[in-house]
Specification:
Chain A: It comes from Citrus sinensis. The complex is a heterodimer of chains A (about 110) and B (about 180). With about 110 residues, chain A is mainly alpha-helical. Helix content of chain A is about 65%, strand content about 0%. Chain B has a two-stranded antiparallel sheet.
């Protein structure tokens, strides 16, 4: 009896070990932060601090100036993001940055990572 | 694990910084998107007012510059008892303490009205304080006949709002107390 080819298929190759899919520390942190609700809290805290110190107003002023120059209908959100990102990142007060970093690290420590 | 304590610490710092940058980027996108929305929907009353004011200020300044040449205006000059004449449009230009723009003195009062809160439009001016505070005061209606009342609520809002800067403090010490 000749073996039918369809039955005698070569064995299915083993699935390639997805080693690059193993979550990085960064990703693990992110997931833990989101799950525990800490990310949301930190986001709100950061927002509040940035409003208090006038950072948000500065960014809004930059946006308005750019919009005035370019004309209201020629501006995209992407443009605005590019306008404020460099200044935005640079003008964060150190105290705020420190406060947030401390909280993040405390979380890392408490999550025993 | 072969990670030393130091390695752990620097990995932690790196991850923390990275995470912070992420948070910041999200917030930046939010702010950009909010500004974009306000601009596109025309919600920023100040935007049109600013342009109108710039135009009016420029006009006023032009008039001031011209007034010495204009024969017509000269005839309107009143001579006071010291023999001085006063130009019809006040000359000096100085800075509004509320918004920081340079305004010709002759246009200062109307500017303050818009800037500081006599009218409905000024009250709707978006400031740093919560919209809730804003809504509370706009209920003191635009059609109100008590102009002093609406003036004071305007001032009130200024002294409460965190964004008012120097002007708010000045007024909260002055007129606010009288009420």
């Amino acid at each position: 009896m000749s073996l039918r080819n369809s039955v005698n298929r070569p064995p299915t190759p083993d699935a390639v070990e997805d080693q690059e899919k193993e979550p990085t520390l960064q990703e693990i942190i992110n997931i833990k932060m989101i799950e525990s609700g800490e990310k949301e809290k930190l986001m709100e805290l950061l927002r509040e601090r940035l409003v208090e110190c006038g950072w948000k107003d500065e960014m809004k002023a930059l946006c308005r100036a750019y919009i005035k120059k370019k004309g209201t209908n020629n501006v995209t959100v992407d443009d605005l993001v590019h306008v404020i990102t460099p200044k935005g990142r640079a003008s964060i007060p150190d105290s705020i940055k420190t406060e947030l970093l401390l909280r993040i690290r405390a979380f890392l420590a408490s999550a025993a990572l | 694990m072969s990670l030393t304590n130091d390695d752990n610490m620097s990995a932690h710092s790196q991850v923390s910084s990275h995470f912070f940058e992420d948070l910041l980027d999200s917030i930046i996108v939010d702010v950009a998107s909010e500004c974009h929305r306000v601009a596109r929907l025309g919600l920023d009353r100040n935007f049109e007012e600013e342009e109108e004011e710039l135009r009016l200020s420029a006009q006023a300044r032009a008039r001031v510059a011209d007034s010495s040449n204009n024969g017509e205006t000269n005839s309107k000059y009143v001579v006071d008892i010291f023999g001085q004449t006063h130009p019809p449009v006040a000359n000096e230009i100085f800075e509004c303490m509320n918004c920081g723009r340079s305004i010709v003195a002759g246009r200062f009062a109307p500017h303050l009205e818009k800037c500081m809160g006599k009218g409905r439009k000024a009250r709707l001016k978006v400031t740093r304080s919560a919209t809730a505070a804003q809504n509370r005061y706009t209920r003191g209606s635009p059609g109100s006949s008590y102009s002093s009342y609406s003036n004071s609520t305007g001032m009130n809002r200024l002294s409460n709002g965190a964004s008012s800067g120097v002007a708010g403090e000045e007024y909260s010490n002055g007129s606010f107390e009288e009420l």
